[in-house]
Amino acid sequence: MKRKKKNNGLKKIFYIYGGILLILFITCIIVYNVYNKKLEEATKQSLLATQKMENLVPNDVLEEASQEISKSIEEVLEDSKSEILEEPIQEILEETSTQENITEETAQEEVIEEVKPLEFMYPVEGEILKEFATEKLVFSETLQEWITHNGIDIKAARTSVVKAVEEGTVSAIKNDPRYGLTVIIEHRDGYKSIYSNLLTSEFVKEGDNVTKGQSLGTVGNSAIFEIADEPHLHFELLQNEEYLDPTMYLK
């Protein structure tokens, strides 16, 4: 009797679980069918939309769009480079050339402005004792004869300070056998100034760059050829090794 009751209980459990499984199976079939119908409807709608787009957009436009889309990234970049950079590069080259020309012209103008003509000042203040004479003769008190004179003698007391007539470089300091202690300054444009009959040249040395008006030395009486004359500075001015009349240039 007990065994019979036990068998009936197992049957009930079997039927219950069997019913549940059957319900689940039927539910899955229903869901699957519903999903397939929806998927079919979505596919049909997509096809209809595609057909409408084809009817609205011409075939040649679609083909062109398709071709453009199928281009590789490298082709697109190349096309972009050729279209975007061709004209700007030419413009940049033209602008650079123009800027170089302007810069060169500006530099030339600045050089022209900076290089001013030389203006020679008197090395000492005083009257002219003996004038410039290369094409005529002047009388030498020391030599007691008529001679040529390649410079001018400017009267000045002994130890008077002698100044540079223009900026330049001291090229030599020497004892000339005729005109005594001498300082020579090289200027630009081929000019050269010579200061002789000095007592000292203590303010400069060979190789010094001097400015206009800078002290060079002092007036003395070291010129043997002019020792009988009053104290003075013997001054000469040359350009390209040709003697000039200093009075035509000194201001």
The total count of helices amounts to 3
Question: How much of the residues is beta strand, in percent?
Answer: 25-35%
User: What is the 3D form?
Assistant: rod-shaped
The total beta strand count reads 12
Provide the CATH architecture of the largest domain.
Distorted Sandwich
Q: Give the number of domains.
A: 3
List SSEs in N-to-C order: HHHEEEEEEEEEEEE
- Please write the CATH class name of the largest domain: Mainly Beta
Oligomer: single chain
Give the proportion of residues in helices.
Answer: 40-55%
Q: Tell me the name of the CATH homologous superfamily of the largest domain.
A: Glucose Permease (Domain IIA)
Nearest-integer average pLDDT: 81
CATH topology label of the largest domain: Glucose Permease (Domain IIA)
Structural class: alpha+beta
| Poorly predicted residue ranges | none
How many strands, what sense, and barrel or not for the largest sheet? 10 strands, antiparallel
Distance between the termini: 156 Å
Radius of gyration: 56 Å
Explain what you see.
It is a single chain. The protein is an alpha+beta fold and 251 residues long. Helix content is 43%, strand content 27%. It has 3 helices and 12 strands; from the N terminus they run αααββββββββββββ. A hairpin with a 4-residue loop joins β7 and β8 (191-200).
Question: Keyphrases for this structure?
Answer:
ten-stranded antiparallel β-sheet, 251 residues, Glucose Permease (Domain IIA), 3 domains, 27% strand
Short description:
With 251 residues, this protein is an alpha+beta fold. The chain is 43% helix and 27% strand.
